[in-house]
Amino acid sequence: MNSQIYSLFGEAQERTAAGRAPTLYSSLIDDLGQLNFADADDRRAFPPTLHSTLARHGLFGLTTPAEHGGLALPLQEAIDLISATASFDVSAASTLVIHNFLALPCIEAAPHIPEQRHVMRGATRGDLCAFALTEPGAGSDPRHIQASAFMHEDRVRISGRKIWIGLADWARWIVCFARASGPYAKGRFVCVLVDRQAPGLKVTHEHRTLGLRGIIQNTLEFQDVEVPSAYVLSRDQDGWGAAASSMNRGRIGVAAMGLGALERAIQVAASYASHRRLGKLRMIENSYVEQLFERMVLRREVVKAMLGASCRLISAQGAPNVHLASATKVLSSEWCGLVADQCVQLLGGRGYDERTPVAKIYRDARILRIFEGPTETLLSHLGRCLLSRATRDEIADLFLSLGAAPVHAAAIEELSGLNETDGAVLIYAGWLTTLGLAQAVMSAGCFSASDCAAAAADLISSELATLRSRAPARPSFERRINASRILNTFLQDAASSIRSPVLTDDYLKLAQYV
Ligand SMILES: Cc1cc2nc3c(=O)[nH]c(=O)nc-3n(C[C@H](O)[C@H](O)[C@H](O)COP(=O)(O)OP(=O)(O)OC[C@H]3O[C@@H](n4cnc5c(N)ncnc54)[C@H](O)[C@@H]3O)c2cc1C
Questions:
Q1: Which domain holds residue 184?
Q2: Which residues are CB-contacts of 438 (< 8 A; sequence separation ≥ 6)?
Q3: Do 200 and 218 belong to one domain?
């Protein structure tokens, strides 16, 4: 059984490729294969050739309508191309997600802006667009943004600071979110299209990040940046709606990146394990290693099916299902991180050596669990939606549409009696929802053509069993007091006895900075 699943991995990849826009897919793969992404990582900038390659293939307008110069691809095909790109380089795929899924749809949805056609044409040909939401005081909960947009009749004045904005300094356009004020404010938030060269808009910092080194991340300072009112993208509605729908699409994009990176890591590790000998056997013949590969391949199968289900729901409903998009992003990013870690381990010293691609995948995978909503934020939100009477029906409907109403009922039953406002309970409820949705997707049968769907469903059942073994007990006040006392004692000891330079000036600067 195990070796059957292992051998299916290669076949499954071929099958998927055959279903994609085949010419575009294979010529993109050929072109990406020519580029040296390890050097780009060291240089902390992707090569100009990558930009022209992506532009030549039309990848800066993946789902954009043809009238704007886009490829108008169905979401599933766009997702496949993003996964394929991520299997070469997560930074390159991130460029596609920021531009295509986060920024561009906000511009496309605003036909009223001056020369929208021209802006869209330029963007689909490669004028990069960045998405500026995060601020020092507003990250995992962006509703606390402080950047202000003072709305005059004919212009908007923006002030504030945005951090970790991917592509910002290379971008032609910045889609910026700010808190609206002044006599012409229509909602609480606005979404404004800002020219990167606008007077008063300064790039003040380039962040040195653990991974995702092929693209730039900047701090942006908006110092009374004046933009004509016509460039307010969210003219008639609250800009929060634009941000939320972009982030939902972005989560599906991040899940696609996780899938591509995870596939490449398994491929590299499997090739090593097939050749490396452990004693008399090849590594792949060791039963422990074989089972590890089985589980990695099954995780990939689940993520692929979840993405397929998300895309199908979007075609049916016209917009991403926020709950399924969050669950898919959580599973893909968490499992990509887990698989990347296991593959580094399987390669031993070579896994830690930057000359093999898994070290870079390991570093790159780490961001997937943080941006577009950290795992805990999304789980907590899913858990709250499951438990709250106001939103419970939305989750129930989603399970129902996947033919899994009993899974939902069982989760509600299991959670009854727990404190619905406790942080640990919410995360637990979020995991129950996420794994429950994965179980429903795999059981539905239609989202996975794979012969290993049943084994993948078993994997989810065992993940659920492990989760339940760690179910939060009814919160005990004494336990929390004790936990806090243990930490405080440690910090007091550390302040006087730990001599390593943990609290360097740089570290303190970062804490103050945030
Ligand atoms: C490389 C990189 C690129 C980025 N690109 C962009 C971009 O292009 N545009 C943009 O706008 N932003 C971008 N970001 C910002 C990113 O989206 C934020 O870092 C992210 O939303 C988290 O915000 P924060 O860092 O302020 O974390 P915080 O809000 O300080 O959260 C810290 C941690 O708290 C935990 N946490 C949060 N909520 C809960 C909860 N309910 N329960 C328990 N624990 C919880 C999570 O573990 C979380 O990681 C980027 C960030 C990085 C590092």
A1: 129-241
A2: 302, 305, 306, 327, 331, 460
A3: yes
pLDDT value, residue 239: 85
* Domain shared by 133 and 119, yes or no: no
Going by CA atoms, what residue is nearest to atom 23 of ligand 1? Answer: 139
Beta strand residue intervals within 171-260, DSSP E: 173-181, 189-195, 201-206, 217-228
Query: Does the pLDDT value for residue 237 go beyond 90?
Result: no
One domain for residues 439 and 291: yes
Q: Domain check: are 191 and 286 in the same one?
A: no
Q: Is the CB of 367 under 6 A from ligand 1?
A: yes
Query: How many angstroms does the Cα of residue 377 sit away from the middle of ligand 1?
Result: 9
301 lies in the same domain as 450:
yes
Mean pLDDT for the stretch of residues 408-430 = 92
CATH code of the domain containing 334: 1.20.140.10
pLDDT band at 449 (very low <50, low <70, confident <90, very high): confident
What six digits make up the tokens of 18? Answer: 């055959």
The verdict on the CB of residue 218 being under 6 Å from ligand 1 is: no
Query: How far apart, in whole angstroms, are the C-alpha atoms of residue 464 and residue 470?
Result: 10
Averaged confidence pLDDT in the chain: 90
* Structure token digits, residue 390: 């106001």
Q: Is residue 25 part of a domain?
A: yes
277 φψ region: left (φ > 0), alpha (ψ -120 to 50), beta (else): beta
From 217, 241, 265, the end of a domain falls on: 241
One domain for residues 12 and 105: yes
Positive or negative torsion for Cα 181, 184, 188, 193: negative
Q: Quickly list DSSP for 259-308.
A: HHHHHHHHHHHHHHHHH-EETTEEGGGSHHHHHHHHHHHHHHHHHHHHHH
Q: Are residues 75 and 102 in the same domain?
A: yes
pLDDT at site 90: 98
- The residue whose CA has the least distance to atom 17 of ligand 1 is 371
- pLDDT by residue (tens digit) across 6-44? 343 333 343 344 455 778 999 999 999 999 999 999 999
Cβ of 376 closer than 6 Å to ligand 1, yes or no, is yes
3-state SS string over 368-392? HCCCCCCHHHHHHHHHHHHHCCCCH
Residue nearest to atom 35 of ligand 1 (CA): 376
Give the confidence band of 336 by pLDDT, cuts at 50, 70, 90. very high
For atom 25 of ligand 1, the residue with the nearest CA is: 139
Span 141-159, mean pLDDT? 95
The span from the CA of 15 to the CA of 12, in Å, is: 5
Q: How many residues does the chain have?
A: 514
State the total domains in the chain. Answer: 4
Quick check: 129 and 162 in contact, CB under 8 A?
no
CATH no. for residue 27?
1.10.540.10
Asked whether residue 474 is domain-assigned, the answer is no
Phi, psi of 394 (to 5 degrees): -60, -45
Examine the domain organization and report whether 294 and 430 are in the same domain.
Answer: yes
| CATH code of the domain containing 164 | 2.40.110.10
